[in-house]
TrEMBL record:
This is V-type proton ATPase subunit C. Keywords: Hydrogen ion transport, Ion transport, Transport. Subunit of the V1 complex of vacuolar(H+)-ATPase (V-ATPase), a multisubunit enzyme composed of a peripheral complex (V1) that hydrolyzes ATP and a membrane integral complex (V0) that translocates protons. V-ATPase is responsible for acidifying and maintaining the pH of intracellular compartments and in some cell types, is targeted to the plasma membrane, where it is responsible for acidifying the extracellular environment. Subunit C is necessary for the assembly of the catalytic sector of the enzyme and is likely to have a specific function in its catalytic activity. It comes from the Eukaryota. Belongs to the V-ATPase C subunit family. PANTHER family: V-TYPE PROTON ATPASE SUBUNIT C (PTHR10137). Pfam families: V-ATPase_C (PF03223).
Length: 375
């Protein structure tokens, strides 16, 4: 699915006074600009931040993937729902969370070490992601079982159950020598069937073919013959591309079991779908929120590693939507042209950050920049 809304999250040192440029000159001021507010986190050592940087990068990618998987589930379960009706976080559109990001201090206390916060946020989100996977598997199984039962009940004559079509009088019963075979014949082969069914093998009862039912693709016939030649007859039917229904055994008990199977699998599939939909909506809200809390920590960590201590940087969310989405790459180039010089001064000598330069996420040099799709 094509992304409807994209953001550039950019963190720049306060000393560059970036806001006026971002608001009025970047992309000719055509995009919405909001502050992406970060709390003050507890920093132990710069070494710990370097170690955390790689973990945050992986978590960011993992949670983005989790959100995308949940979106795919929601889109399949509710294909006619509008974009903003399915992308809901804490009862608001997901874009509101990005544009009005606020750290959840009641859930994630910032007086805890960053590593503790990362573990807490990621564990909750990944546990929920696992719950969605398991529920999705249960739904897929229930759906598969229902489709199989539905094919038996409502499929074409070559595959559906025939219990509600045929009657005992259509068969040769209680005979030591004769039997009846049911055959679903494609409509375009009916003429061939009438011409040849009596001679495809020995001892087929002449003119025994009874037409029992028809649908859009097949006609169902019953043919009587000697039991000794049944397998030979069935093989010949397949060679003629007719469909012998050797799977069928007439039984009132089987008919009742079929009805029970259909009703049971339909009820199970319906309940599984409702349960999955409810969980997926909760998961989207919770995992999306967790994703952006991880992203907030990542921005903070990368900003400290690039710009030094004490933390003095501002973060912004630059929104691109509709026809303006195509300007994301152009805006990136404009940002690099304007602030590319920060690549040489991104680490403060007085804090000895230069020794970490090769370890910091190089994809976002020369300043902290993240590209986010709300799919």
């Amino acid at each position: 699915m094509a992304s409807q809304t994209q953001y550039l999250l950019v963190s720049l040192p306060q000393s560059v006074n970036a806001f006026p440029y971002l608001e009025r000159q970047l992309n000719q001021g055509k995009q919405q600009l909001t502050s992406f507010n970060l709390p003050e986190f507890q920093i132990k050592t710069l070494d710990s931040l370097v170690q955390l940087s790689e973990e945050l990068s992986k978590l960011d990618t993992t949670l983005a993937s989790s959100v995308a998987k949940v979106v795919d589930i929601l889109d399949n379960l509710e294909p006619n729902k509008l974009f903003n009706e399915t992308r809901v976080v804490n009862s608001r559109p997901a874009v509101y969370t990005v544009e009005n990001f606020s750290w959840n201090t009641s859930k994630y206390r910032v007086d805890k070490p960053i590593k503790t916060l990362v573990d807490l946020i990621s564990n909750d989100a990944l546990s929920l992601d696992n719950d969605v996977r398991l529920m999705f598997q249960l739904y897929q199984t229930a759906k598969s079982n229902f489709l199989a039962a539905d094919r038996k009940k409502n499929g074409d004559l070559s595959i559906k159950s025939l219990h509600e079509i045929v009657r005992p009088e259509h068969f040769v019963l209680d005979s030591d020598h004769l039997t009846t075979v049911l055959i679903a014949v494609p409509k375009n082969l009916v003429s061939d069937f009438h011409k040849s069914y009596e001679t495809v093998t020995q001892f087929v009862v002449p003119r025994s073919a009874q037409e029992l039912a028809t649908d859009s693709e097949y006609l169902l016939f019953a043919v009587s013959l000697f039991k000794k030649y049944q397998q030979e007859f069935v093989t010949a039917c397949r060679e003629h591309k007719w469909h012998p229904r050797t799977d069928f055994v007439y039984s009132e008990e089987n008919l009742n079991e079929l009805r029970r199977e259909f009703d049971t699998t339909r009820a199970t599939e319906s309940k599984s779908k409702i349960d999955l939909l409810r969980l997926a909506k909760t998961a989207y809200s919770e995992i999306f929120s967790a994703w952006f809390h991880i992203k907030a920590i990542r921005i903070y960590v990368e900003s400290v590693l690039r710009y030094g201590l004490p933390p003095q940087f501002d973060c912004y969310a630059i929104k691109f939507e509709g026809s303006n989405v195509g300007n994301v790459d152009k805006a990136k180039k404009e940002l690099i042209a304007k602030f590319g010089y920060l690549g040489g001064d991104g680490f403060s000598d007085k804090n000895n950050l230069h020794e970490y330069a090769s370890l910091v996420d190089s994809d976002f040099e020369p300043f902290v920049l993240y590209h986010v799709d709300i799919v």
